[in-house]
Amino acid sequence: MNYPKLLRKGDTIGICAPSSGASGEVLSVRLDNAIRNIKALGYEVIETDSVRCDDKCVSTSSEIRATEFMSLYENPNIAAILPPWGGEFLMDMLPYLDFDRLASLPAKWVCGYSDITTLSFAMTLNSDIATIHGSNLLNMGYARIHETDMRAFDVMSNYSTEQKSWDTWGGFMSWDDFTGEVYNLDRPSLWKSLQGDACVSFDGMMIGGCMDTLCKLLGTRFAPVESFLNKYKLHGFIWTIESCEMTAPDIYRTFWQIRESGWFKYCNGIIIGRPDGYKDKRNFTLLDALKQGLGDLGIPVIYNADIGHIPPQIQIVNGSIGRVEFADGKVVITQEGVK
Q1: Range of the domain at 183
Q2: Residues 309 and 187 placed together within one structural domain of the fold
Q3: How far from chain centre, in Å, is Cα 41?
Q4: Contact 108/128 with Cβ under 8 angstroms?
Q5: For the chain, which end, N or C, has fewer CB atoms within 10 Å of the first or last residue's CB respectively?
Q6: pTM of the prediction?
Q7: Number of folded domains in the chain?
Q8: Which of 240, 251, 253 lies closest to 277, judged by CA?
Q9: With contact defined as beta carbons under 8 Å apart, do 58 and 65 qualify?
Q10: Interval 191-208 mean pLDDT
Q11: CA 209, 214, 218, 221 torsion: positive or negative?
């Protein structure tokens, strides 16, 4: 596993938009605030030409998005790459990336969630590069960077980290008021075990991301999951999965598809984030989807997790060796880098 060099104060962070761009006055101001906040932490920032552009859900053409990403990845002065946010069509960029070339270069951090999963998951599987399913840059564009997003910098700065589940969860305070807090975490948080366990622990190599985009990679050359699982099978695996805009039947159908594709081979446990944009279908609920999709795997399944679109968010390093300790609705996740 190619683990990036640890991030240090004074390093330069690159910004490109491999999916949607931050266009318009509101998002541009939010991006400016995020850059200001990152510079205040002691980092330098470079952004590519298309970051503030967007047309038909993408910042620019597939070829140019790949070129801009590679320009940052090949730049020896760039230590990490933070896209502004996700989007819809990052997959169109993948054919223009040279994954062998990426594997030959010094590894750099790539961090984000939602459609950024399409890139980070493909990089980990095809180039053996550790990536982060974690905070998007625009989440940092408010009055300050919230503690949950500050964890991204902690993870990029340490090969060994420990993150605890939060006591509360919630949503964004406001889309376009950047003068205050970014999140309103006003609901009690309680992670749950699908098996009803009061406590359980498991470990393995961590891998996963946003299920909405992961499932689009099934059966393509950009998701060689079988060979990846066989390569690292001695570690076993922990899948971390979250969803956005999926109904309960969508979630179940996708779990069925993932299982039939063999992705849960050598799996030691699964963590499911709180679904965003979610709906039941008549009396078929999220719990039904989890039970029918995962209940008979014979491994621990933890859900209602602080992973994904609904804040707060634990930063998951794809390619790290993780340990999950669940007890009485609370979780501690430790991650160790693999060299």
Answers
A1: 168-336
A2: yes
A3: 22
A4: no
A5: C
A6: 0.97
A7: 2
A8: 251
A9: yes
A10: 96
A11: negative
